[in-house]
């Protein structure tokens, strides 16, 4: 029997998740908790909250950032802050929260197909989807690969549309030495535990000016502008002090986190570089990378299809994920929309049936990564053996 295949059968091997949050040593977090207990200020624009907003602006290279308790509430609030109505052009190839945020604001999503290479919105298809009811474009920087921000912003200027970027994956990413978060009217980040930078749960809106930030800050606190005055039907989206403190600690470890992710990414790329049927996801050369995900496309040249490989990895206790499957447009809530027709989304439909995201996180040990690689390559070995 092939030695690689036989090595996979060891019942002592542990479960490998697709991702894990980076957790700095607990001893480093204790002083923050003690300070919160001393101040007895646990939420609503506390000291750590203010410090984290300032620190993130500095780290990300932006001027105005508002923290939220999670990224979905941030996206819902961004749409409300810009008073978006009618129809919004967006992608079906994303996590469902992208479109849910539209739904919660009473906005109709209009799906446009994705680009074959980047898997972001295909900018050549956007113009044809614009109608008199279109008010905005909601693109996603999928897998932290920046959209064609120049083309999208030009289209938006031409047709008088707003642009809100779902930048949930794109923490710290830069385009031609400029933060990707500076493009469009707003960008929304997620700090969920699965992300490169996390605050357990959390998120943020990056906007262009101080006036807009004040409106966002009011909206995330029920619409209050002072103790007795409510100016808008806001929501409770505030980040608490424990989350903010953890974020401050996380920022101190970002260099290590990115370096570890880069190491894992490089190892996968070396292992799969010349394997027929495995297409590696590439990022434009003028963009920085944060190594948020490691997606591969399993095409017909590979001995098994994507779902068979997914099941084989699960059998060997490796939790790869089919990001994003099904498409948002295929969920019952949205599949009745005219733009959800598979004939309108052929590239996204194919991608959703090919993409598999392999585990990548700072705590992934080299021997566990090799185990993942061995499971994938065993499909090739078995095919050759027949």
From TrEMBL:
CDD domains: AHBA_syn. The keyword Transferase applies. The modification N6-(pyridoxal phosphate)lysine is found at residue 195. The keyword Transferase applies. Signal peptide: none annotated. The active site is at residue 195. Keywords: Aminotransferase, Pyridoxal phosphate, Transferase. Gene3D superfamilies: Type I PLP-dependent aspartate aminotransferase-like (Major domain). GO terms for biological process: polysaccharide biosynthetic process. PANTHER family: PROTEIN RV3402C (PTHR30244:SF9), TRANSAMINASE (PTHR30244). This is DegT/DnrJ/EryC1/StrS family aminotransferase. The lineage of its organism: Bacteria, Pseudomonadati, Pseudomonadota, Betaproteobacteria, Burkholderiales.
């Amino acid at each position: 029997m092939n030695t690689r295949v036989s090595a996979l059968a060891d019942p002592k091997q542990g479960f490998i998740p697709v991702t894990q949050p980076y957790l700095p040593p607990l001893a480093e977090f204790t002083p923050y908790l003690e300070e919160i207990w001393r101040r007895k200020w646990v939420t609503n624009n506390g000291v750590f909250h203010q410090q984290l907003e300032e620190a993130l602006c500095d780290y990300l290279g932006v001027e105005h950032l508002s923290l939220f308790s999670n990224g979905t509430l941030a996206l819902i609030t961004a749409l409300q802050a810009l008073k978006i109505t009618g129809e919004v052009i967006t992608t079906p190839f994303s996590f469902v929260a992208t479109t849910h945020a539209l739904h919660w604001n009473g906005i109709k999503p209009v799906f446009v197909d994705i680009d074959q290479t980047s898997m972001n919105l295909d900018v050549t298809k956007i113009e044809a989807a614009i109608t008199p009811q279109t008010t905005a474009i909601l693109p996603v920087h999928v897998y932290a690969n920046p959209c064609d921000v120049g083309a999208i912003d030009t289209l938006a200027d031409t047709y008088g549309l707003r642009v809100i970027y779902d930048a949930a994956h794109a923490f710290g990413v830069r385009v031609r030495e400029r933060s990707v978060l500076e493009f469009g009217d707003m960008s929304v980040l997620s700090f969920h535990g699965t992300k490169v930078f996390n605050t357990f749960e959390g998120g943020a809106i990056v906007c262009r000016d101080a006036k807009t930030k004040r409106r966002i800050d009011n909206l995330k606190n029920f619409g209050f502008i002072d103790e007795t005055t409510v100016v808008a039907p806001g929501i409770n989206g505030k980040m608490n002090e424990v989350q903010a403190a953890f974020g401050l600690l996380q920022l101190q470890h970002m260099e290590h986190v990115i370096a570890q992710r880069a190491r894992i990414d490089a190892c996968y790329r070396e292992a799969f570089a010349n394997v027929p049927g495995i297409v590696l996801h590439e990022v434009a050369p003028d963009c920085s990378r944060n190594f948020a995900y490691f997606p591969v496309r399993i095409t017909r040249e590979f001995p098994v299809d994507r779902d068979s490989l997914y099941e084989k990895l699960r059998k060997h206790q490796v939790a790869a994920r089919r990001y994003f499957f099904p498409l948002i447009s295929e969920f019952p809530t949205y599949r009745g929309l005219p733009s959800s027709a598979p004939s309108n989304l052929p590239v996204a439909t194919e991608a959703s049936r090919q993409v598999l995201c392999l585990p990548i996180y700072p705590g992934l040990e080299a021997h566990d990564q090799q185990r993942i690689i061995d499971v994938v390559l065993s499909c090739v070995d078995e095919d050759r053996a027949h």
